[in-house]
Amino acid sequence: MMKKKAEILDSAAVKRALRRISHEIIEKNRGVEDVLIIGIQRRGVPLAEEIADHIHAVEGIRPLTGILDITFYRDDLSLLDEHPVVKGTDIPFNITGKIVVIVDDVLYTGRTARAAIDAIMDLGRPKIIQLAVLVDRGHRELPIRADYIGKNVPTSNNEVIKVHVKSFDNADNVELFEIEKA
């Protein structure tokens, strides 16, 4: 059972964080000419779309966006359900030689990011792969770091971060929950 401890980001704060990440992507890459924005299924996808929209508002160019399903790249696939739910990858453009920005909601152990990098490398050879996350909660198990972070939220292992996005949850916010012991 989980008990809500706090709202970390409200809707306005989520929008500000995504807008800031968008500006950082533009600045770091000196524009967005070769930038592709790819969201990790599920909640990374609407976050990627919003980042691309913010970039378009600033630069007048909307980077191509794609959807990445990492299900079969997970290192814990054998521990999951016997029939994992595959939501599908949709990247209808060439990534070779491009700057690929992978977008996810929460960076925790680094295993999802590693799986996403493996999946991207199977599609081509990007010039650079960067990682953007709305929340970095720490507790890395792999040497992975985000290039763009909306908010750093130090957590304990008995806490959970939940990112809500309108398209799935009817709200845009980030909440911290504590796992209650039975």
Description:
The N and C termini lie close together (8 Å). Helix content is 28%, strand content 30%. The longest helix is centred in the N-terminal third of the chain and has 18 residues, at 11-28. It is built from four helices and eight strands; from the N terminus they run E-H-E-H-E-E-H-E-E-E-H-E. The chain is globular and about 50 Å long. The chain has helices at 11-28, 44-59, 111-123, 166-169, and strands at residues 2-9, 35-40, 64-68, 99-107, 128-136, 148-152, 159-164, 173-179. The strands form two sheets. It has a five-stranded parallel beta sheet, sandwiched between helices. A three-stranded antiparallel beta sheet has the order 1-8-7. It has a single domain (2-73, 86-179), classed as Rossmann fold, CATH 3.40.50.
Which radius of gyration do the C-alpha atoms yield?
Answer: 16 Å
Number of domains: 1
SSE series: EHEHEEHEEEHE
Number of strands: 8
Say what the CATH topology is: Rossmann fold
Q: Can you list the strand order of the major beta sheet?
A: 3-2-4-5-6
Secondary-structure map with pairings?
Blueprint: E1 2-9, H1 11-28, E2 35-40, H2 44-59, E3 64-68, E4 99-107, H3 111-123, E5 128-136, E6 148-152, E7 159-164, H4 166-169, E8 173-179
Parallel strand pairs: 2-3, 2-4, 4-5, 5-6
Antiparallel strand pairs: 1-8, 7-8
